[in-house]
Design the sequence.
DNA sequence: TTGTTTCATTGCAATATTACGATGAATGAC
DNA sequence: GTCATTCATCGTAATATTGCAATGAAACAA
């Protein structure tokens, strides 16, 4: 079906899954890494950084923006993107709250 | 096309994207949370915990296993699943190494 | 005005994912 | 041996994702 039964899960489960989905593509990881590296707004050269067509990059940027990982603001004729630092910290905590709930040195599975 | 250009990105970018993809579904988040909660091997009752058919749950378990997040070992007539604790810590670090590369209190984007 | 640049959006084709019924393989009970 | 239980796999239908060419929309230069 290709249709996720989102209504059958909690909001928190769906939220974390959506955040993971936003990061579930190497191009989007590459975009995030580039934005982090330059540590500033990036206007325009993202298409040059990636081995993808302009339309495809724009689509990935829209998904990252929809997930709240990045912000974009118009600057004259170009658009500048950067990490949404406030949300970034929140998202980091969302992932950590799952990772840290498990597997201390004493956990004895299987 | 639906075909990701994996060859155009680094192994590390593809690896992290694949880990994120494994977590990019609320059912798989729910499975991980349940395995964490009981902190032990779970044999059989996973299907009862989820609002999905047995075949669907099995498919999700296979993806989590392929990504290395969980382990499964046969125990008589049933199969037991649990978090792969060693890999879990490694995966945690992979995510943190991205999250912690950005956005200290002084970062001044946009 | 016309042209240029920059990015978003549309439309499409190829592939991937999700879900489930049906079936299969393996184990244990009897 | 038969039968039930448990889980994996196959096949299939519905939907989602990925990628790109083509086209728009907005800002600026001349």
Sequence:
């Amino acid at each position: 079906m290709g249709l996720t039964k989102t209504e059958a899960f909690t909001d928190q489960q769906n939220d974390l899954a959506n955040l993971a989905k936003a990061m579930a593509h190497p191009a989007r990881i590459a975009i995030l890494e580039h934005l982090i590296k330059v540590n500033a707004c990036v206007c325009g050269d993202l298409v040059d950084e990636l081995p993808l067509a302009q339309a495809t990059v724009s689509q990935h940027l829209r998904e990252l923006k929809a997930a709240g990982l990045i912000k974009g603001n118009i600057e004259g004729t170009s658009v500048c993107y950067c990490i949404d630092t406030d949300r970034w910290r929140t998202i980091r905590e969302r992932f950590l709250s799952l990772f840290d709930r498990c597997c201390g040195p004493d956990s004895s599975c299987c």
Q: What stands out?
A: Residues 1-4, 25, 27, 52-56, 59-60, 74, 76-78 of chain B lie near DNA strand C (CB under 10 Å from a C1'). The first strand of chain B starts at residue 42 and ends at 43. Strands of chain B lie at 42-43, 70-75, 78-83.
